[in-house]
Amino acid sequence: MPGVVIVPAAAAGQGNQLPSQRGPRPNILAALSMALPAAAGVAVTALTLNPIGLIVGAGVGLVAALSPKIASQWERAVVLRWGRYVGLRGPGPFWVIPFVDTIPSWIDQRTITTSFSAEQTLTADTVPVNVDAVLFWTVHDPEKAALEVQDYVQAVSWAAQTALRDIIGRTSLTELLKGRMQIEKELQALIDERSTPWGVTVHAVEMRDVVIPAALQDAMSREAQAAREKQARIILGQAEVEIAKLFELASEPYQNNPTALQLRQMNILYEGLKQKGGMMVVPSSIVDSMGPAGLMAATALAGQQQAARDDAAAAAAREESAAAVPSLADIAALHTPLG
Known about the structure:
This protein has helices spanning 28-48, 52-64, 142-147, 152-169, 173-178, 180-195, 214-251, 258-276, 284-324, 328-335, and strands spanning 6-7, 68-71, 75-81, 84-89, 92-95, 101-108, 112-122, 128-139, 200-211. By secondary structure, it is α+β, with helices and mostly antiparallel strands. The chain has four domains: 6-108, no CATH class; 112-212, Tetrahydropterin Synthase, Chain A (2-Layer Sandwich); 217-252; 257-324. Helix 1 packs antiparallel against helix 2.
């Protein structure tokens, strides 16, 4: 049965069998054309007891069986008479003149998929790459496909490979990796321009994979990592600048108000002692500005807060231990005999 033709890139140019070059195509009409004359010959031979009827019937049946043909819905048969083109036949049944008409090609008009590749092809910036792609195309003019080119499937495959190498040769690696859609459009237009005289229309080209050398992949990975690290440092520096501006803005209320500054220092010290609950190292300038009294007051207040937290924790621990120890009444109830 005819079907979608898939031509691997490795098989292109190796004489792969075309859908137009298949073997004999038997059909029910050919079987009937052979059976009816043969049956008539058998009947004549039975009536006359002469084998000539059987021989003539079989010969006529064999010749008649060569006449009827059936083309599938997606096929067109190219008919030559004495070597000259007389037209296309199909879809459906049709008849030819035996030994006069020949059908050299059955053209499949469904979408055909052809995979092709370009190996170790240099880009515009002299980087060797391996590119795999898929071509989707159809035969829109079976007459041209049969008469204008010897092997239209192989011709389309080679045209696709040469076009791909041409596109890669004038494209840089960056454009090849980032601009796939544009390259696919250019590749489709180039292949379509070359294959249109053969009656072929290219519908789409899709690049499946672009493989670059391993050393270059490592270099590109390190370059991308360095770029991201650079961007992270820039963002961190911008954050520091914004923080410095905010600190500058926050310091303006304290410039001409030493009392507010001293209260802020005491609050900072209190918060630190309250959270840490232990020794805290503070700059000597804060101690000088607050004075010993302020420092001792902040320390005492933080100590009271810590003591209150310690007392609450001890009370909670005592309650848990009391709940865990059974009472005397419970112990007596356990030892009292039943009844």
